[in-house]
Specification:
Layout lengths: L13 H15 L16 H8 L10 H12 L4 E2 L3 E2 L6 H6 L19
Antiparallel strand pairs: 1-2
Length: about 120
């Protein structure tokens, strides 16, 4: 979902800068740039943990809300491969860990899936 005058959803935001680095990191470590276009779309726990370790503590949400967010994602019909949100393509464990992020589900504006 691009904003007018921008190339991406997170452009110009601190967490967007981090997610951009994640995409660059993942692309540099694969032959293909798009996770959805690869022959194997599975992301290992080790890869996710390595990416999570790069998030600054002040940008992270507290553990209780993180667990609640992950539970909401786990029960969502839009979770693919146990790791990926089909609405935005993010790795849910990364997005759910960031304070500034919200659930990208289209109905979350009306009926929030994540706790505030």
């Amino acid at each position: 979902m691009a904003r007018e005058g921008g190339s991406g959803y997170h452009e110009g935001t601190t967490h967007g800068h981090f997610l951009g680095k994640v995409v660059n990191f993942m692309s540099a470590n694969r032959a293909e740039a798009c996770k959805g276009c690869t022959s194997s779309v599975q992301v290992t726990d080790a890869q996710i943990e390595r990416l999570l370790s790069r998030i600054k503590p002040e940008d992270r949400i507290d553990d209780d809300r993180y667990k609640m967010r992950l539970e909401a994602c786990a029960s969502c019909e839009s979770l693919a491969y146990g790791t990926t949100c089909m609405h935005c393509g993010c790795l849910v464990r990364l997005r759910a860990s960031l304070k500034a992020e919200r659930c990208p589900h289209p109905l979350s504006q009306v009926r929030p899936k994540w706790p505030a």
